[in-house]
Amino acid sequence: MNNPKKIAGEKAASFIKDGMTVGLGTGSTAFFAIHKIGARVKEEGLKLKCIATSIESENLAKELNIPIFGFEEIKEIDITIDGADEVDKNFNLIKGGGGALLREKIIAYITKHYIIIVDETKHVESLGKFHLPVEVVQFGWQRTFDHLQNLGCEIKLREKNKEVFITDNGNYILDCNFKKIENPESLQTTIHNIPGVVECGLFINRTNTLIIGKPSGEIEVL
Ligand code: 5RP
Question: How far is the CA of 26 from the centre of ligand 1 (A)?
């Protein structure tokens, strides 16, 4: 049996060409893409300019000798490869299961070719079964929680190892269970209007290519 995340990640890495600026995603699927990019840098001598969506991915890239740059140098990205928690039939996404949604979204919005890599369990008819991550500032987070709850979801303050989870940006994450999200675009607008919200994990109209890995070894490129 094949590892669907590995084959999807490695396939995505094959889209990268010498001289490109590349966004590196976060999570267990992006991990395989970053490893493959590292191998291509080493073996083919690819000259890339990369930027990472989290401290974790930046550290991994540095270990693999992938050249990392900051926003002083990078204004636009040729290709970003990232994972997702859910992808609907219109290629809208829920992201942020790994807590990197804010940096991931900033990078997605300056990317020309946004490639999403998933296993087939994440390809769904409509979004919402996966709890929507919303990054909020620590100040008054309880009241931001109330406003989100009034939208009709159940919410959990994210924890890791029994401590409150803190993002790379020093914020909290509220995981919101909407069960089914009928209109992702309007929900995103509503959430953006709540004071204390930094960003939500809905990625609308961003994905250019979806790569789905399957245990059989088949890879679907859509
Ligand atoms: C991190 C993310 C990840 O891309 C998403 O959670 C998917 O992760 P994985 O590939 O480990 O299943 O959005 O913030």
Answer: 6
